[in-house]
Specification:
Pathway: Cofactor biosynthesis; (R)-pantothenate biosynthesis; (R)-pantoate from 3-methyl-2-oxobutanoate: step 1/2. By secondary structure, the protein is α/β, with parallel strands linked by helices. The chain folds into 2 domains: 5-227, Phosphoenolpyruvate-binding domains (TIM Barrel, Alpha-Beta Barrel); 232-267, no CATH class. The protein has helices at 5-13, 26-34, 46-49, 61-74, 92-104, 117-125, 151-167, 179-188, 209-213, 229-246, 260-267; strands at residues 18-22, 39-42, 79-83, 109-111, 130-135, 171-175, 193-196, 204-207. Strands 1-2-3-4-5-6-7-8 form an 8-stranded parallel beta barrel, surrounded by 7 helices. The longest helix is centred in the C-terminal third of the chain and has 18 residues, at 229-246. The radius of gyration is 22 Å and the shape is elongated. The N and C termini lie far apart (61 Å). 40% of the residues are buried. The structure holds 3-methyl-2-oxobutanoic acid and sodium ion. Residues 43-45, 56, 83, 138 line the site of sodium ion.
């Protein structure tokens, strides 16, 4: 059965952790869905991880939709979330147009950054499932840094999370905050929290898929390497190039043949 918002909320009630990864393409979506991930997420980290941009703010709505459509074709069971890109939710009307485009192309819900209570409530009142995103928010901060380290800033993050819930957010992502703050917010909120670099006690976890496959050259404290896929890709590319150059590939088993008479006729 397809996983809906009810399912995700029930998981929190039953103290079961929610699993989530980013995804930007069809084959990865098929595998993540098959692996039983709860949430598959076309984030605007598309920009830095897949498209080679310096920052997430370069990602356009059309680019998100292009990848969302591919991921949609691969997702059968998981909840499919899409990010609202930078400057596509400047006011409630613009936000609704953006959100409707994303849901039209297969998103089950949309995520936006910061304390945008008015926008969240407008989308919610129009039947859109909205996810908030607090702490470090790449659309507003240009360098990754832990947020909410002082009491005052922690209080702002916690109060913002409650305001998002009150405005009608269904979920909230917490990025790069102290573990204690992640725990307090997760206990205070009825809606589930999903952490990335937010400690062990959020209601679920998300990682950027390249970060956990070892495809990214960078190393991050909050991520964990679950497979040296990057190293495997590099070795495969090198082996292929070497074999083409040496003539070891293709071999007889990799080729198709014509009938002798057809070959003769072709020559004449
Ligand atoms: O775009 C993204 O990958 C995100 C996650 C880090 C939550 O917003
Ligand atoms: Na994002």
């Amino acid at each position: 059965m397809a996983k809906n918002m009810n399912y995700l909320h029930r998981k929190k009630l039953n103290a079961q952790k929610i699993t989530m990864l980013t995804c930007y393409d069809y084959p990865t979506a098929v595998l993540q869905d098959k692996a039983g991930l709860d949430v598959i997420f076309v984030g605007d980290s598309l920009g830095t991880n897949e498209l080679g941009y310096e920052r997430e703010i370069s990602v356009t709505l059309d680019e998100i939709i292009h990848h969302l459509k591919a991921v949609r074709r691969g997702v059968k069971e998981a909840y499919l979330l899409a990010d609202m890109p930078y400057k596509t939710y400047e006011n409630p009307d613009m936000a609704l147009v953006t959100a409707k485009k994303l849901t039209l192309h297969g998103a089950d819900g949309v995520k936006l950054e910061g304390l945008q209570a008015e926008i969240v409530s407008h989308l919610h009142n129009n039947g859109i499932e909205v996810w908030g995103h607090l702490g470090f928010t790449p659309q507003h901060h240009d360098k990754a840094a832990v947020q909410g380290k002082t009491f005052d800033s922690a209080k702002i993050v916690a109060e913002s999370a409650i305001s998002l819930q009150d405005a009608g957010a269904s979920m909230v992502v917490l990025e790069l905050i102290p573990e204690e703050l992640g725990k307090v917010i997760s206990e205070k909120l009825m809606i589930p929290t999903i952490g990335i670099g937010a400690g062990r006690f959020t209601d679920g976890q998300v990682l950027v898929v390249q970060d956990m496959l070892g495809i990214n050259p960078r190393e991050m404290r909050h991520a964990k390497n679950y497979g040296n896929v990057g190293e495997m890709m590099l070795k495969s590319f090198q082996a292929y190039a070497n074999e083409v150059e040496s003539g070891a590939f293709p071999q007889l088993t990799n080729v198709r043949h014509m009938k002798d008479e057809e070959r003769e006729a072709l020559l004449n």
